[in-house]
Specification:
The complex is a heterodimer of chains A (227) and B (249). By secondary structure, chain A is mainly α. Helices cover 75% and strands 4% of the residues of chain A. Chain B contains 9 helices and 7 strands, in the order E-E-H-E-E-E-E-E-H-H-H-H-H-H-H-H. The chains are: A mainly alpha (227), B alpha+beta (249). The interface between A and B is large, with 44 and 48 residues.
């Protein structure tokens, strides 16, 4: 085994991969949110369609999106490997546990939260990404170029209150996942310092509240607009 | 106080084991938890029954020998060792569940006794300083900043009881290993071997079958010596740095 695989196959190495992929996904959330917020600009979807079109034709963005899918997969695969390993480390469980006094609920249930987010992700991709890539979306004229009308797909989707509810609840799961994941990733990378850790924890909590709230606002606002 | 005890009984490592209920009467609130178990065992011996086996040694909270998972927590409700836990922490008539520490790396030997030899093997793999320290050096011959000395001393207070493993939902030993790595890597005497030490101790920790850390912080919250989570971050740094810079290809 080379030193690289040896390191990455150790429990610490696997945790490192979880942290690094997690960081990338955190960055992705910010970029994705910035794009999506254009759905709320009252211009009949012109800005959003232009944004979606530019994303689709830009080779750099397309490469990044492939990397993004790869890293999501890596995050999922390593979480499965680590969870299996961790379950094996305690074959006989306790009859009684009192974990609520020593740790947060989110920190103990990252696997469950992650699974729920993954389910959301699959539904989300099926609803939008798949339909744009492999369906036959309506076209709309933007200046003198004809582009996919991504906006109308979103508008139609968020007319359904069940779909909106699903999105909002999924963002709650994401919030809890981030409430532990953000600061935890720093700790795994070895970044723990009296000066910075309290700040990292506060920023992490703020991030975990702000980003999912803004994401959840989009379907809610669009649903209200559709009424 | 009168108490009902739900105690894990297991004849040997291969026995499946199970809970048995015992009643203890007239327990003084000033007794330590282990003294309460001594009372139970005397009664059992008088009746000709096998006493409940449990680990203990100094009974002063400094050796790390006592264990027990009491009412869902390692070392019971207070953040101290079981020997320093007193019966005043419980109420008259209460039922107390007593289980052994649970981890694949800590197999049950008998009843509440678990084999924590995995910790010894981790220490043997690199938790030492190999240079001959010789006689007592002159004071201040090796300058060590007070902050680092304190930090190393805090880590060195780890008594290796295994409560961190018992408390962790993943049965991870990272708080223990990180305390040992920190204590040595913070001081000049331990710096010489720090890289090799980190690599070897982590390898041995993984070999023993402990889980991986998910940073829940349960270990530190339950640690009788209040070992800090920052040690785990330091261990991660030490390990990653060692991985990319040692000569071991």
């Amino acid at each position: 085994m080379s030193w690289v695989t040896k390191t990455l196959n150790s429990t610490l190495g696997q945790k490192l991969l979880m942290a690094l992929t997690g960081f990338f996904l955190i960055l992705f959330l910010v970029v994705h949110l910035a794009g999506n917020l254009q759905l709320l600009i009252p211009d009949n979807g012109e800005s959003f369609n232009l944004y979606a079109h530019n994303m689709a034709i830009n080779n750099f963005i397309r490469s990044v999106s492939i990397i993004n899918f790869g890293l999501i997969l890596l995050h999922v695969v390593y979480s499965v490997i680590l969870t299996k390993h961790n379950k094996k480390a305690r074959p006989v469980g306790y009859a009684e546990t009192d974990a609520s006094t020593n740790s947060t609920w989110a920190s103990r249930n990252m696997g469950i939260l992650g699974t729920l987010i993954l389910i959301f992700l699959l539904v989300h991709l099926r609803g939008f990404w798949y339909r744009l890539k492999f369906g036959s979306p309506d076209k709309v004229l933007l200046g003198d170029t004809e582009v996919d009308n991504a906006f109308i797909i979103v508008v139609e989707a968020f007319k359904n209150p069940i779909y909106v509810g699903f999105y909002v609840i999924s963002m709650v799961f994401l919030a809890f996942h981030l409430s532990h994941g953000f600061a935890s990733a720093f700790q795994t990378l070895g970044i723990n310092h009296k000066k910075y850790t309290p700040l990292i924890q506060k920023v992490g909590l703020g991030f975990a509240i702000l980003i999912p709230t803004l994401f959840a606002m989009i379907p809610i606002v669009m649903y209200i607009q559709s009424l | 106080m009168n108490l009902t005890l739900k105690v894990w009984r297991q004849k040997n490592a291969s026995d499946k084991g199970g809970f048995r209920e015992y009643k203890v009467k007239d327990i003084s609130a000033d007794m330590s938890f282990l003294e309460m178990l001594d009372v139970l065992n005397e009664e059992l011996l008088e009746k000709g029954e096998d006493p409940v086996h449990f680990d203990h040694d100094c009974r002063e909270g400094i050796c790390g020998m006592c264990s027990l998972h009491i009412n869902g927590k390692p070392h019971g409700p207070s953040q101290t060792t079981t020997c320093q836990l007193h019966m005043r922490s419980f109420k008259d008539g209460q039922t107390i569940t007593i289980e052994p520490f649970r981890a694949k790396a800590f197999p049950v030997v008998k009843d509440l006794v678990v084999d924590r030899g995995a910790f010894d093997r981790i220490i043997q793999s690199g938790g030492y300083v190999s240079v001959n320290t010789g006689g007592v050096p002159d004071a201040n011959e090796i300058p060590i900043p007070k902050v680092l000395a304190d930090e190393a001393f805090d880590a060195a207070t780890c008594i290796g009881c295994g409560a961190c493993v018992a408390a962790c939902k993943n049965a991870s030993a990272m708080l223990f290993v990180s305390a040992k790595i920190s204590q040595l890597s913070l001081l000049p005497q331990g710096r010489v071997e720090r890289k090799e030490r980190a690599e070897k101790m982590i390898a041995q920790m993984d070999k023993e079958g402990f889980g991986a850390c998910t940073n829940t912080g349960a270990c530190s919250a339950e640690c009788p010596k209040e070992i800090k989570l920052s040690n785990i971050a330091r261990m991660n740094r030490e390990y990653f740095k060692a991985s990319v810079t040692t000569e071991n290809v």
